């Protein structure tokens, strides 16, 4: 395990250092974004409802090819959920079409699938280039170089805070998984984000009382949102956070 961690850390450092597309964060307040991958229904109708009750919104990364399918994170969104998401003030973003891995797919096929996914969602979010997240958090130098500039931003799953210089081809993000026992770790991240006046991105999948290994409980989600608000951070979608960039 020790060697595997060293190799993993070295790979993350390398991928974070190359093929960068830099922007500078100019917000006077720390920022926090809540994001959901795959977009299971509970992400909108449970977690989204928690945010909406507080006047807040999130970013949902959808793979159109998964639409209306059962998965280990629960039932995935159907077409009727997309206008509902937009009507509730959330951001719709892309997660490829077929939910494929950049490390297991040729670059040309991966790029075409990423663009197909964006096109499939475009009628619901007709504002030009969409924000994107790499399925499985899998990213390569080639994907950063080719897919990165084609999207407004690309989010991974490498943990950490973004700012003051941000790599738009590989935004850092932090998993929000599990139950209430994970709250102290999430509070520490939020406190560090406030100290550094940076941008903290959370990601998860399903939000239900018995979550998958890739989701969290409603109690944990609500507690983290409350902590984020108390920290003085502005809670914004990915799209709104990028409006603070130069």
Explain what you see:
It contains 8 helices and 12 strands. It has helices spanning about 1-15, 40-50, 80-85, 105-120, 140-145, 185-195, 220-230, 240, and strands spanning about 20-25, 30-35, 60, 70, 75, 90-95, 130-135, 155, 165, 175, 200-205, 235. Helix 2 (about 40-50) runs parallel beside helix 7 (about 220-230) and helix 6 (about 185-195) runs parallel beside helix 7. The longest helix has 16 residues, at about 1-15.
Q: Tell me the fraction of residues in β-strands, as a range.
A: 15-25%
* Rg from Cα: 17 Å
CATH topology: TIM Barrel
Helix content: 25-40%
Indicate the CATH class.
Alpha Beta
Q: How many individual helices? A: 8
> What's the number of domains?
1
How is the main sheet built? 6 strands, parallel
The count of β-strands is 12
